[in-house]
Structure formats: structure tokens, C-alpha cells
């Protein structure tokens, strides 16, 4: 069997994954800033790294998966008036900051549950680790790579670049950045525009602030991840993941801080998922295309034609390799919905089939093809987690399963080991690793009952020549993809698209 290779953003190439400690993997993924509701852009990294978590466990590793909650310190502007996103949100919604944090943490957890994302091993909060962050900042100052200004502390990027490889992850060149930012320079308390805050001074009216050696203030976003990852995974650990948008400045800053404080590179493998676009456009407030997950599930955003289930979204996300861009559109999601249904139909058949032969004649070619398509799934996962190719193989196997049921392919045409491998592959990849959850039988039973009720009402309406009502029921069901067919004997059958 091949070895598990991952694309390391640090070296920009695929590398065989070898953990620091045999049998164990430490992995850190940047969690959400809980100042608002999660949107579609959040779905991709968490689904992607959930599959990584699952796959590493499948490979037999004991994985410690740390995913933080940013409940303080995330601010966009680094000028004097830097405002913490949580504090800003709390003011807007007239809530206590921790009330806001609780609200959106709960919503985030709920969304993760809908996506069937496993819970991380540890979910540390930034506010719960202020002491660790202060200690780390002190270390950086004592090494001479940070300076204090008016009660705030900044990382000295220029000095860092003299002794370390600044831009190692993002490929940014400091000289170019200094060049482009020089003109924007104002009376900033920072020595250089590229310097970033480790600690921000906060006056008394500030909603969230903590005492520190530099006075009251709050930590910078980047230092949170450096402090929490090293606390739970060690100064050096295996995998650090996140969305590509975090590569710079967030991850580059994490690397710089950790390297100065600990004297070694923090993570050995960096993994980044690519971005999501909506109808070919970057997601952004100005395009009014930031779709919240609750809007997605309920179909309430103006760009959506209908609701899309969490499993449809999970399936759609995994149908594309995580390093490729992914475009969301109604068309693509509706195709995904149908695709997923095809897989479930085949999976349901597979559950009912068992190997029993009442004939002879092995179809060697078919037998070989089935075994190959199954064993290739491991190869695809090992090739930088190519979930798209795993899906493609399952789609190639689906017609074989359908034919086994309908008798176009007789069971004796494939061998018992091939059949067992087929069953095992669907359970392992579709359910365990890709983490898709079949629609509950209960739900479809209930749907059947509701449908029968509608059929009865329509029959009654027809009986009293109320064709307006009977047509309405038929047409509206057709709109949602359920076709009623009146049989000659008076019964009504239906088919679901
Ligand atoms: Zn982070």
C-alpha cells in the first residue's frame, strides 16, 4: 500500500506524512471567531479537516485535534482605535460580550453537528488562555523581537527577517511589503506598518480587557493560536491547517512568534484548503453573497432557489479536491443532491445484498475491476486526500451494485472477496471517512406517510370534481420532484426524481 502523502504549503510539494512521534498525530486547525454566524466559507475548512481527522484515525493514529474558539482579540484595523470584533458585535447586538460568544459558539457547534463533523479533542478559547499568551509575549520581548509602545506590544518584523525566514509560508518578500506600505505610514505607534500587534492597550471603556505587564489590554489574534497550539500539542507538532485566506498574515505571524519564542518551527506540515466562490464570484459583503449556514439549510437567502441539506453541502464540498477552488451555484448544488441520492440508493441496495451463489461462471474482468475500484480508494486518499477521486470510484461502482440487484449481473460473476471488499469500501469511505450520513429510514417513512395523505386528499378532491385542488397537489409535488402517476386500476404510484 502507498504511504499517506500531503501537500505541505511550507515546502509547496507533496510529502510523505511522518509524525513526530510514531503512532501519534498532533493537529491544530484555526477555529472560528464567534462574533457572528458561520457562513458558507466556514463550511469548507471544517469539513476538510474533519475528513483529515477521520482519515488519520482510520490509518490507526491516535490523533489529538485542537481547534480553537477565537472569543477575543480578532480585529481588522491595527491603528490606535483597533476594535475587537467580539466587543463590536456585543455593542451592536446589545449583549454582554460573553453572551454573544456563547450564542455564536452554540450556533457554530450546532452547524458542525449538522455537517457530521466530529468534535475536536480539545477546543480551547482565547479568553481562557490569556496567561499563556502574556507569557509568550514576554518571551518574545526578552528575545528582542517585540517592543512596547503606549501599553501595546508589537512584533518587530524587520528584525525577525534579519535572522529568520520571513515569508517562508506565504512567499511574501519583506522588501516589497515595506515598499508598498511606506506611503501609507502615518503617526502609527508601530515602527513599521508590517509590524503586528501581540497585545493591544485598551482604555477603561473597552468591554473586554485584561491586566498585563503593559497595563490593561487584550491579546492579538495571531498570538492566541501560537500560545494554544504549543500548550496542547508541544512547541513543535505535526499538522497545522486552515483556509488559504489565513496563510497571510495569520499563519505567517503564528510561525514568526512561535519560532522566536521556542526556537523551532511550530508545525511540520501546513495544509490549506482553497476558497469558495458563489456563482463565480468571491464571497463578500459588497456582493451580498455571504450566505449563512442557517440560510443555506433553510433556503432563505435571495440567491438560493431552495434549501440545501447539510449532507448535500458536505458531499458537494468533498466532491472537489480541497486545494481547488469550489464554486457554489443552485445548479451545482441540485446536481450534487441528485448525485448523493444515487450513492444512497446504491448503498441501500448494498445493505440488503448478501453473497449467495446459485450459479457458476466468474466474470474475471468484472471481478478485477470491482476489486481495483475499491482498493484505489485508499490510493486516492493517500494522494493528498483526494476525496473527489474517491467519490468518482464510488460512482463507478454504483451501477455494478444496481445491476447486481436487478440481475443484469449475477452474483456469481464476482468473487466473494470482491463482494466483501465492495461492502467494506462503501462503509469505510462513504460513511467512516467522508463522514456522510444516510437519510434516516424514519424520515423517509414519515415522508411516505405524508405523501399518502396528499394522494388521499387528491383522490377525494377528484371525487367531488374539484380539479383545481387535485391539479394543485399534482403540480406542486412535481415542482419538488415527486411525480404522481395514475394507474389504470385507480391506484396512484409516485416516483421521486
Ligand atoms: Zn490561528
Describe this structure as you would to a colleague.
This protein is of the alpha/beta class and 497 residues long. The chain folds into 3 domains: 269 residues, 3-Layer(aba) Sandwich (Rossmann fold); 141 residues, Isoleucyl-tRNA Synthetase, Domain 1; 55 residues, no CATH class. A 4-stranded parallel sheet has the order 4-3-9-10, sandwiched between helices. A hairpin with a 5-residue loop joins β14 and β15. α12 runs antiparallel to α13. It is globular and about 85 Å long. The two termini are 40 Å apart. The mean pLDDT is 91. The protein binds zinc ion.
Strand order of the largest sheet: 4-3-9-10
Number of spatially distinct domains: 3
Average pLDDT level: 91
Bound molecules: zinc ion
Shape call: globular
What share of the residues lie within helices?
40-55%
Main features:
about 500 residues, alpha/beta, Rossmann fold, Isoleucyl-tRNA Synthetase, Domain 1, 3 domains, four-stranded antiparallel beta sheet, globular, binds zinc ion
